[in-house]
Amino acid sequence: xxxxxxxxxxxxxxxxxxxxxxxxxxxxxxxxxxxxxxxxxxxxxxxxxxxxxxxxxxxxxxxxxxxxxxxxxxxxxxxxxxxxxxxxxxxxxxxxxxxxxxxxxxxxxxxxxxxxxxxxxxxxxxxxx
Length: 129
Fold this sequence. Notes:
It is built from 3 helices and no strands. By secondary structure, it is mostly helical.
């Protein structure tokens, strides 16, 4: 007797849907619930990977923006440093001018006090020849 092919066997059903290549121990345990669970787990894993990749790209963009801001602030700090150097130089020049003016005023004050001192002295008799 020729054995008729059992169209309702699990192997035949799996071969019809393209899962005949799976090992027997897996085919015996395979049912709609496990397939659904596997699809759900795979979907969650794919979603996690895609979400993680999106976050990595977002972080790369943020790092690039921060580096640009850092470079911009570095150039601004350099400009501020140059301006402060110019101001410091100008202040030093003003200090030296003020010191020169102060010494000139002191010299003129001493001269004026000497002249006042001479003017306040009583007159002297002339020398006769």
